[in-house]
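Question:
Now give any protein.
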Amino acid sequence: MPSQQKFVYSFTEGNKDLKDLLGGKGANLAEMTNLGLPVPPGFTITTEACKVFLETGSEPSSLHEEISAHLDALEQEMGKKLGQADNPLLVSVRSGAKFSMPGMMDTVLNIGLSDASVTGLVAQSGNERFAWDSYRRLVQMFGKTVLGVDGELFEEALDEAKHAKGTVNDLDLDASDLRELVEVFKGIVERETGRAFPQDPREQMDLAIHAVFHSWNGDRARLYRRQERIPNDLGTAVNVCTMVFGNLGEDSGTGVAFTRDPSTGTQGVYGDYLSNAQGEDVVAGIRNTLPLSELEKLDKKSYDELMAIMQKLENHYRDLCDIEFTIERGKLWMLQTRVGKRTAAAAFRIAVQLVDQGLIDLDEALMRVTGGQLAQLMFPRFAPTAESKQIAWGLAASPGAAIGKVVFDSYTAVKWSRSGEKVILVRRETNPDDLDGMIAAEGILTSRGGKTSHAAVVARGMGKTCVCGAEELEVDTKARRFTTADGLVVEEGDVVSIDGATGKVYLGEVPVLPSPVVEYFEGTLHAGADVQGGLVQAVHRLMSHADGRRRLAVRANADNAEDGSRARRYGAQGIGLCRTEHMFLGEERRKEVEHLILADNDKDRELALSTLLPLQKGDFLELFQAMDGLPVTVRLLDPPLHEFLPNITELSVRVALAEARKDPNENDLRLLQAVHKLHEQNPMLGLRGVRLGLVIPGLFGMQVRAIAEAAAERKLAGGDPRPEVMIPLVGTVQELELVRDECERVLAEVAQSTGVTLDIKLGTMIELPRAAVTAGQIAEAAEFFSFGTNDLTQTVWGFSRDDVEASFFTAYLEKGIFGVSPFETIDRDGVGSLVKHAVEAGRATRPDLKLGVCGEHGGDPESVHFFHEVGLDYVSCSPFRIPVARLEAGRAAIESAGSDSR
């Protein structure tokens, strides 16, 4: 008979590798316990228990008994009983998912306090104020978190109590004030819920555990997971931990520390500390904290012990650690550690620092950074001028240059953002309910809180610009304005600029300069410059290692020599997509295409083609020169036909007016007839691509001749052109065979007339489901495939990108139908499975088949890993995404090698 599943683990039983089961917090509490660090005793309820609870609506049958056994053991170890009247044991109940979700799920402190046990806590601590402060915190937190009472009701009551006392500081409320406040809070609970605040400590604990389970599916947790692409089926663990108290007086306190600066990566002493406070006070930003260095003056013994523990943890985890601690009457306790969230700049610097310290190798360093972080580093930075008016200065919590209209609540931020406005969310401090506004905003500005406040931690995780603790700002959210130290009033809708790298806040729009990382890729950065504390050097080292490790080549989507040259500077190894229709969109060429479409006999058609040929040849000459020695994949004409014809309504009006004047224009009449004849309800699924080449004789032949003649001319001039011809929108091998025959005939004619041997590969785009399904047949006539994943996504899903993104994508994302737009990251299950099938079928027919992708997925970090997995040879993307693709291709190779070795 199989043994019963275990749902509860003591902190002495786990380790840091059990995050799937114990969550990140529980696994790391166990790891610190194993290391002999001062961790308050406790136990963890597993994520598996949470999954059962969420699936069935009730906890596993054995869970209550398991919790009781672990609680008994904890009570014996501590010599106290949960909530007993004379010597109460108090515990915290805290969430802890596998991936850090700061502030997104629920926590309740001081479980076990009641009308009976609060007097025991007074006797136990000898501090009446502390006991009643702890009780009011429990009622407030429990009421909001577990019972669903509006938190503003408690805040308003607290503000009224402070106002009656003539203070704005919680610490000025004495024991009598807090005792009265507890009664007010209990009254709020009973009025709002219809039941009294529970006095049974075990009932408090069980309800709190269930609330944490439920919070996994709370709105803010779901929103955060969508933003961070965290799977929805992981569940959260629950940690029940003996309470230690930072609010026992001036010899107590609580803090958050980092082993390195999470904003810059600089080594040193970083963190925030609050005397006489509980942990939630620090991260909530409701009181401005002291820098961690001040703790040395207040309590050198605890400070020195903390510094030694921080060094031990960083060496053990081999990474930046984020630590929560409490000091209870001079005794240091460790409440949490985790690998800390950091800015993009800090991620690159820290990765290289750890290599230089011998803690990790370059492979591991590369896996510590992402293409998304590299993209953040390529954003512009501010270039303040004499006209730039600085109005405040706070803490540089998360870098970036953000400009937008001031808004004061989450709802307005989302509403204005959806209307196309760029906004800056301004709050006294943020809380988890502000998450959707933080996502919508360009940046976040708060008047309270430090680098470990909710705003700072969440903004860093999302890569959002953030300035915290701008104390001179008086934020009035009800009046929807803030006032600066010199009396300037900034109203909602006024534009401000916030600099997350310096903490400076400016009125109005400040001009921006290119990022030094972009200047590095462009080759315009001063050689050897120690820009931004070695950031560029760190990027260079990791990019060089990525290039040495990656198997995937990276090409560019570029339609002209200028874009091709830029792409080459960014590290492109050729052009994977040159869209020739973009070469025809000028007014002069558009007219020639009109003539070609209107031609109703061979003579007129040949005249139009002969006019276009030298223009096309000139385009290709410039492009082949810019990309000399590298492959250039030229896609033959693939426009929806309406792009080259006048608007049917405008043309009809023009013709009607001319007829009314009795001065008809014969050319307009012919053009209108052609437009009516060629008009399509859905041009994206109409006469385009290979279909156009087959319907208009000589069109593709003209383009191939221009490519071949330009290549021959470059060769004769000593160049090394390497063109490839790509036939678009093929759905059947017969289409490809017909066009291929024409292409081969033209190439042979050019080779004979110029005396130049031309090695030009002929291939096709795979952008229709039928092409993917019949890839084995199509490979018989193609020397290469390039997956056009933009069109393939449209045709697989059956929707038009231009229409659906504005109409229902937002609702689909909010409802969780999409975790992310399938146009942003490849849909592995649908579109991806077709790509995988086409790769396997194509190579089965032609083992040397060259395979690439040229949709914008080619520059998406997650998609690059998929393309590596399925065996493509290269990805192609816009020039500015090339560095991202290079970095991710290197990471994909390392990840793949790690999987193979396991």
Q: What stands out?
A: The chain has 36 helices and 33 strands.
